[in-house]
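fyi for ur records
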Amino acid sequence: MGNECPYPHYSHIYEPPLSICWTEYMRQCSFDHDKMIENDFEQNFKNKTVEWEGIVTELKDNYAKFIMNPTEVTISNSELTLFFDPPVNKAVPPLFVLHQQTKFRGKLISLGFFKNHVLDYVPMDSLHPVDAPISYEQFLSRFGSTQQTGTAKYFFQNWKGKSVVLEGFISLFKPRKETSGYIAEARFDLNSRFSDVKQEPILLLVTAERPRLVPFLQTANFVVPYTITAVFHEREFGKHVMILLDARPTTLSAEVQANIYPPQTSQSVNTPVYSESSLSDSSLPSPSEIPPPVQVSSATPLTILPPPSITNPFASQPSFEDVSSKST
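which gave:
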């Protein structure tokens, strides 16, 4: 019914990001983009009442299917299904007539991920007011099939080649053959400042033009945060690929440094501390108060403590090779 439809075809506008930052990048290019759209619908629109208009393309006792204005229809003859109780359409004249343009109210039930959006019919009266004043065109801009599958277009239009500054942790350094165009790679994990954004694998690549970055990555401490400047390069195989431009240790406060490098002590020893003002004859212990030295026999075994170990926080995380394949 594509050429017969009187409604214009919906043309999606790929909006620019609000700013060049990781939060905006994930909003437009996350590998879980479809889940983010579904969560938006569930939290803000599900069970809300809308008033729209469309043409009935299929009519049964308990539902009507519509082509909407504007339409996303390409190969099917409907994009929205409105369910109702059979008595609803027994009125004279009937509310819904095949091939007739009809205005209706409905409660949003589910999104059509590559299928029809689903609504439940509600009467057009004061007892069932519209509580989601959104046009169908606005609905498509937020939940339509073009928006659901638009991450690749968003990436190439808004992000590829743009640079961004990030903070996080470098690990899993690996050299590459120069024939690949890159001489090294490493994993990058965002620090807790980005805890409100879902963590997705980031792969850093080093080009032959920046060999100075290789020893830096090779010796990077995986528990120390680094500030990097990198360029968005690709989205492939479930990871975000970025070309590294610069990297340096993040300036840390004394409190943070103490948490990363805690003082290492084998035992707690009660050692008396004297200030210069307290070193008077009356304050010094008498010879009778000084305990005798501890006698250590050559037969007494010495206990040697092992050096403190640092647990790799990334040991339990999957490597890039383990990430399931999911291309753009």
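The first strand starts at residue 49 and ends at 59. thats all i got for now
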